[in-house]
């Protein structure tokens, strides 16, 4: 990347400084601007080997007209998008507009440098390799989450959506596998055609082939009329095979033949039809283990597992619980449930719960809280009462047994969740405005820690200081403040 000329469009001076130092260390030349107008003036006067752009800029959205910049009059220019709007919508739109890569903020500097190096090298070896992709975002994406684990999902999803590659979505029950499948369909060139879902676990073994491929009249006892199958219903679109691990072995063989040949025949018919569908499959099972025990065909597994997408359990993305909870409250309002707000203590209770039923369980709990809570604000006691069975069972599918105490997530995750809850509060907003956010947060956590340790040591400051690993005088000074 030595001598490469890079344009940075970023209105955060601190980020600009960090990127400038890193790129100069690589021997690259950086021009930095903070607005779209300044960007356009630079592009009119100069040729760049790559562009780094933020999304939310003072005078507009950095994704606007991005495709025109990628393939401008002077040829192809790779663009790397940085965004604090860490949503699926942003990732999909960046991909659709032709961005070479998308990195959510806060980004890893080494990852940015690696992406730039790859972009510059690929442009030098093949100028058309960074041209815009086909397809595009089909409106706002319904998937909610900003956690790092979800960012990895978004990036994979944005890249695979415009293709016709088969996708295998893996994750526990309730993590949103069908929602992801729909998002892939809605962001693809097939979005105008049907999205058809079939749950393989819900279809009787003897009817699976008929459900998938249809049947002709008289094909079997009870086939009094012709019936079209899911492959024909989804023609031109996407066929979502949910719970694929529960598919009977003999039906797996038939599906494999269709994927290999690209054709299928309705049950009882000798005439083949073209299978013009994209296949997305999903399971909460370990297909590798099923293959090892002979319950799932290895060749079918490799046909389906072209692009795997692993959805994280909610207990592994606790920082998203507040965002999801508020989303479900708003969703409930649209369904006719009472308008509610969520107290900070209630959100901390939700964050501390392990959510064995994942996002589906959280959705059901929030709708139930909206319906059954008397006050305008949902409080910690309301959450405790519901999760322990006081508002009726909280057992929605894969959840705790009624009457048991809420199970708790990893203690570190609870602490992180509590910090994120506080950052959404009015106190944090005031601290941000005054430039005292770090001091305010550390002070609140520190005093709570001091109080807890002093309680455990019966107010013996010498013992407390030893437990904390700090000097006794430091403890006394900090306690006074």
Contiguous low-pLDDT stretches (5 residues minimum) are 127-141, 392-409
First-to-last CA distance = 51 Å
Number of strands: 18
Major beta sheet summary: 5 strands, parallel
Count of discrete alpha- or pi-helical segments spanning 4 or more residues: 21
User: How confident is the prediction overall: mean pLDDT?
Assistant: 84
What does it look like?
This protein is α/β, with parallel strands linked by helices and 481 residues long. Helices cover 45% and strands 13% of the residues. The protein contains 21 helices and 18 strands. It has helices at residues 13-25, 36-45, 66-70, 88-96, 109-125, 148-160, 177-186, 208-213, 230-233, 249-261, 287-292, 298-304, 321-334, 344-352, 358-372, 380-387, 411-423, 426-434, 437-456, 461-468, 472-480, and strands at 5-9, 29-33, 50-54, 56-57, 60-61, 71-72, 75-76, 79-83, 101-104, 167-170, 195-199, 238-242, 263-264, 273-274, 278-283, 307-310, 341-342, 377-378. The strands form six sheets. A five-stranded parallel sheet has the order 2-1-3-8-9, sandwiched between helices. The longest helix is centred in the C-terminal third of the chain and has 20 residues, at 437-456. The chain is globular and about 90 Å long. 36% of the residues are buried. Residues 127-141 and 392-409 have low confidence and may be disordered.
